[in-house]
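does this look right to u?? zinc ion version
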Amino acid sequence: MVARVKKNDTVVVLHGRDKGRQGTVVEVLPKKNKIIVKGCGLVTRHVKARKQGEAGGIKKQESYLNMCQVMPICSSCSKPCRVNTQVSEEGARVRMCNRCKKVF
Ligand SMILES: [Zn+2]
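got this back:
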């Protein structure tokens, strides 16, 4: 299987509180189907100062989104796209945009 979403991809959030928001993928957990998107799924954490000089307080932090909540944006047609796979000339499976049929 080819990963539908990879690190540093730009994705669109389709469901939930951040619907319609775009962001860069910071982290992917393929086994759990979870990803972290920059600026999306923000939760408020109440942090206590653990070390000296470290400030406690209320911080906004990204939380994990479900992989199915987002769609990658194709680099050639710059629209959110469904991902298809294709076998390249070297025999590796690569991702292909289902809309413009280009590998991205
Ligand atoms: Zn495309």
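The two ends are 16 Å apart (CA to CA). idk if thats expected tbh
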